[in-house]
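# nightly structure sweep
# worker-07 picked up a monomer target from the shared queue
# config: single-sequence mode, recycle default, output format = structure tokens
# input follows
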Amino acid sequence: MTKWVVLDIEGTLSATDQVLVTLYDYARPRLGPWIDEHADDPAVAEAVAQVRELSGVDGGTDELVRVLHGWMDADRKVTPLKTLQGLIWQRGYAQGDLVAEFFPDVVPALREWHAEGTKLAVFSSGSVAGQVAFFKHTTDGDLTSLFEYHFDTVNAGPKREAASYLKIASVLGADAGDITFYSDVPAELHAAAEAGWQTVGVARAGEPYGDADFGPHRTVRAL
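# output follows
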């Protein structure tokens, strides 16, 4: 039995539309006001500086928002965008505007793994703050106690690079072979396997990677 299960979110635990439609639509009109209202927040100031550096934009909030919206339209996994979205979503969940929903098989599987002594972690492109808020406010209640660690592209690195999985294994204090990664994205599974992890492809009907070629990775339709 694997000692650690590390899980992707979008397309694996929760429908892609919940992120690309529900959460994105919630964040989109709030990005500009959030930047203006939280200009003194170090996390926001750093994110704004990163947006300027990556885009070359030196104008005001409206210009920054145009860049952020463009990244959202292209579903770019850009760190400052994820930081700002995560902060907005965190408040949205806390206020009750947002509630996380999962595929029907997910919560029973999480609870069974946890009860069996398997340790759980998350590796998602969404910020850690956004992840924690997501699992805290769900249709099944607060699930944060099920997870030991949360990883994103800031504290781990890009999801399609083996180095990120090596870094996570080091933080977990686990041998690579004792970790199993579940994801719906073949390229992420390839990177995890390159780092020595066990891998499981999650091919859910109707999801963007539902009919993808998962190659050598064991593939399931549900957890």
